[in-house]
Structure prediction request, 188 residues.
Amino acid sequence: MKKEYNEWYWKVYRWFKWEAKYFPKRVIRGVKNLWKWFPVIWKDRDWDHYHMFEMMDFKLKNMIILFEDREYFVGWENEVKYMKICRGLIQKLQNSYYECEYQDYMEYDLEFVDNGKNFRLEEKIRKDDIASYINKYPNTYRLVKNDPKYKGYQKDTGLALAVGMERHLKARKLVFKILEEKIEGWWN
Prediction:
């Protein structure tokens, strides 16, 4: 008669022989991971990209700490460099840095004005240096100027916003390009 090694008792036997000795260590590691990830998961929401980037940022931070601590392989510094680049870009994407950067080149006062029935917000521009912002990124400016999807953004502030939106898009593409090319080399 032929032995059938897929029966449940053979699976239990193999588990006890090969895996049971690692079970306590895996449980402890799992509990530590739950504790470490709890604040990130607690704040997680399913409705926008911010929280997805938050998890990616947290994971990259932990991987950077591990790689810098262990230094297991030749070239680990290069991999950590790319992880840090991804983290920096993710943080800028989360904070809409590129879309709001042009506002650093403007100074304005905001004032609530009562017109009888309700209030409206008036903006008084003190300094407008949008041209230097646009000149700072000539390639993106050319791209935005010739792209039909930015047709409605051809005035000064709108053009600066379009340049920021395009830079945001480039940063997002760069994060995922780095991840696509490098992520399989980030193992220990």
